[in-house]
Specification:
BAH_dom, four-stranded mixed sheet, Znf_FYVE_PHD, 2 domains, 433 residues, chromatin binding, SH3 type barrels, BAH domain-containing protein, 7 helices, BAH_sf
Length: 433
């Protein structure tokens, strides 16, 4: 049987802080450069980040495609360019593959999980295993590229070049959307699990891939934000020269103040993708916190209003639908007018769950929530302030009410509405999160 690192606890991510090189002496760091490796910057990726269609069915077939000791996968690139240093990573392992592993096959079976997330515990193979185990291990890596030195450590998020040679830098004056698309087109995002070197000449990085929602077999979900990634347990090995720079990524744990965690990073993740589960199933995605009376999820690109009384997060779309329902009833009675905030009574103004079906008021009434006054609130124990807003809720009446007689062409009317919690009826127009 192949050597397996299974134990009561999964192995640490090539625990660089706990282990040195294979001879037992701890090594603090490793420095490499494009000159030392004899390869241009970002010349090789030992393995490529596979797309959704390639990942599907990995655990059900013994002939799955694996990441290879090859070059960066780009159109027209020679995939055997890295054969001299090549390692094959197979992740996950199918039952049939596990049965066919022989003691002399050169396989090395590992068990690990990223960031202490035991729910993502996974087995993967590294081939040739004997060669991989002989590599020295390091706590960190320094990559020198001309006048710039980049230092990377275990559990750093990094950008991995998708193309050889790397494409042109981001032009100046682009929009946020153009910058995000440039990032997706040119880089993959990964979490560093460990550093290994071959005779101090070639440095390898073991990593875990993060995926954009559209890369997954089930595709992007309605709650995924524009800058949202998913942490996966897809293990891989790349050459250090393929890493471009650190990536600005944070983990969002969906606590009370969603801005605090997201202010400091360009990208974020909150959900995991588990390759051990049938990969087209939504069960492969970790569960998220549910909000609002609709029991839906939080899309950080859309406003959500947290009630200071009961703590419920209210989706803006659900609040607008509830407003429109109230206004529609009064419109049919011919009594639609401004709602009076002074008549607010949270004990008896609970709003029913808004309907997701047909909207009979479409083309007649239109609800809207607009930002009005802006103010900033300092976040305790940080150097950051969160921008908050007062909000105005309105209904625009586009046609005459049933009991109105129009004298001449009807002019749309705007009515002020109360912005109330959908569970307890308390006012919400103080602060969104």
């Amino acid at each position: 049987m192949a050597s397996a690192l299974e134990s009561a606890e999964p192995m640490s991510p090539v625990s660089i802080s706990e282990t040195g090189n294979q001879s037992g002496s701890e090594t603090d760091g490793f420095s490499t450069s494009s000159e030392e490796t004899g390869a241009p910057t970002s010349s090789r990726v030992i393995g490529r980040k596979r797309k959704a269609g390639e990942m599907e069915g990995d655990c059900d077939t013994a002939t799955q495609e694996t990441s290879r000791g090859s070059g960066v996968i780009s159109e027209g690139h020679d995939q055997d360019a890295g054969a001299a240093y090549g390692f094959t990573v197979t992740c996950p392992i199918s039952w049939r593959q596990r049965q066919t592993i022989k003691s002399d096959s050169g396989h090395q079976l590992y068990v690990d999980h990223p960031l202490g997330l035991k729910s993502l515990r996974i087995e993967f193979l590294v081939e040739p295993g004997a060669k991989w185990t002989r590599l020295s291990r390091f706590k960190s890596g320094v990559y020198a590229n001309g006048a710039t030195d980049y230092t990377f450590c275990v559990n750093d998020y990094v950008l991995v070049n998708r193309h050889t040679p790397p494409r042109r830098p981001l032009p100046e004056g682009v929009t946020d959307e153009e910058e995000l698309q440039w990032l997706k087109d040119n880089f993959w995002v990964a979490l560093i699990a460990g550093f290994h070197s071959l005779e101090r000449k070639t440095a390898f990085v073991r990593l875990w891939w993060l995926y954009w929602p559209e890369e997954l077999p089930m595709g992007r979900q309605p709650y995924h934000g524009r800058r949202e990634l998913l942490m996966s347990n897809k293990a891989d090995i790349v050459e250090m020269t393929t890493i471009s720079n650190l990536a600005s990524v944070c983990r969002w744990e969906e606590r009370d103040e969603r801005e605090i965690g997201l202010l400091n990073a360009e990208l974020f993740w909150r959900q995991t993708y588990n390759l051990n589960v049938q990969q087209r199933s939504l069960r492969a995605l970790s569960k998220l916190k549910r909000h609002c009376v609709c029991k839906g999820y939080d899309n950080p690109d859309r406003e959500m209003y947290v009630c200071s009384g009961c703590g419920l997060g209210n989706h803006e779309a659900c609040l607008i639908a509830a407003m429109e329902q109230r206004a529609w009833q009064r419109f049919k009675e011919g009594t639609l007018t401004h709602e009076n905030p002074e008549e607010h009574d949270s004990s008896n103004q609970k709003t029913r769950k808004p309907s997701n079906g047909a909207k009979p008021w479409a083309g007649k009434l239109e609800g809207k929530i607009s930002r009005t006054q802006r103010f900033a609130v300092d976040i305790q124990s940080t150097d950051y302030a969160v921008e908050l807003y007062h909000h105005a809720a309105t209904i625009q009446q586009l046609v005459p009410q049933s009991k109105q007689s129009a004298n001449g062409p009807f002019q749309p009317v705007v009515w002020n509405m109360n912005l109330d919690c959908l569970r307890c009826g308390a006012p919400l127009n103080e602060r969104p999160v």
